[in-house]
Amino acid sequence: MKNNNDFMEHWLVIDSIQSKLKKELEDVLQIEYNLSLKAFYVLYHLSKAPEKKLRLQQLQEMVGLSQSAMSRLVGNMEANSCGALEKQVCTDDRRGTYTRLTNLGEQKLQGSLASFHEILKSNLSTVNVEAVMKQLTEGL
């Protein structure tokens, strides 16, 4: 087994790559689409859901936000200034609501997915991620 310093060095390389990517993605999404990375994740998860709708609790678990943070984020995304989401009352439980992806939300998602792909492609083409992961797992 390799020593712990090698293991930590490999972990720090992965952490550095992820931090750099998140920062660049956040910047581009904010400038080009007025979206945070978490908002992008909300759009993405909704796009994959049946009928493009989910309950807040489901989104909260998928995106990794607290209930209040998710409520604020979705509320902002439902507002006219963004318009990417809309509330939909649950027909079988009037107390429940769904959040649904709008056409504008779908357009924002498609554009941001293209940007996301380009950033990952340009950054990860210079890194042998598979080799770094192999080195990390060998240290376990």
Give the strand order of the largest sheet, numbering strands 1, 2, ... along the chain.
Answer: 1-3-2
Shape: elongated
What is the string of helix and strand elements?
HHEHHEEHH
Q: What is the rounded distance between the termini?
A: 8 Å
Number of strands: 3
**CATH architecture name:** Orthogonal Bundle
Question: Class by helix and strand content?
Answer: mainly alpha
Share in helix: 55-70%
Organism: Rummeliibacillus stabekisii
InterPro entries: HTH_MarR-typ, MarR/SlyA-like, WH-like_DNA-bd_sf, WH_DNA-bd_sf
GO molecular function, one term: DNA-binding transcription factor activity
Protein name: MarR family transcriptional regulator
Describe the structure.
It contains 6 helices and 3 strands; from the N terminus they run ααβααββαα. With 140 residues, the protein is mainly alpha-helical. The chain has a single domain, classed as Winged helix-like DNA-binding domain superfamily/Winged helix DNA-binding domain (Arc Repressor Mutant, subunit A, Orthogonal Bundle). Strands 1-3-2 form a 3-stranded antiparallel sheet. Strand 2 and strand 3 form a beta hairpin. The model has no long low-confidence stretch (mean pLDDT 87).
